[in-house]
Amino acid sequence: MNIYQQFHCLQACSDQAYAYLDGEDSYPEIAIGRFSGKTAEDIKIQADKVLKYEKLSVSESKSYNRYLMVGSGSENGVGDNAEYDYEHLINIKNKLKTVSYKEVLSL
């Protein structure tokens, strides 16, 4: 059951537009996603993991300053901001390194 409308970007459905909070670019300001499950317990398990992670202080979690990005290696056409995925990831990586992220990996 989808409670929220999905936005259509190019040829696929996406919730990404909900993460565009500032500016006119296509870089999200927040992480966004959905939980999937067949039962309320499935969703509760996932929500509890997220809440536990959020409650960790920065000193307790080494992952707060690490970031992993995954994109297509295909060069079959440009996407967001007229960039190939690898170009888009490089631009995001450069922006993240100017703030608190120490390690930014991309695939």
Give the overall average pLDDT.
Answer: 77
Task: Please state how the strands of the largest beta sheet are arranged side by side.
Answer: 1-2
By DSSP (H or I, 4+ residues per run), the number of helices equals 2
Unreliable stretches covering 5 or more consecutive residues: none
What is the molecular shape? Answer: globular
| Rg estimate, integer Å | 16 Å
- Element pattern in H and E: EEHEHE
Structural domain tally: 2
Number of strand elements? 4
Return the structural class: alpha+beta
Beta content comes to 5-15%
Distance between the termini: 32 Å
How much helix is in the residues? 25-40%
The biggest beta sheet reads: 2 strands, antiparallel
Keywords:
single chain, 107 residues, alpha+beta, two-stranded antiparallel ribbon, 2 helices, 4 strands
Structure description:
The protein has helices at residues 40-55, 85-96, and strands spanning 7-9, 12-14, 66-69, 103-106. It is of the alpha+beta class and 107 residues long. Strands 1-2 form a two-stranded antiparallel ribbon. A hairpin with a 2-residue loop joins strand 1 and strand 2. The chain is globular, with a radius of gyration of 16 Å. It starts with 6 loop residues before the first strand and ends with a strand.
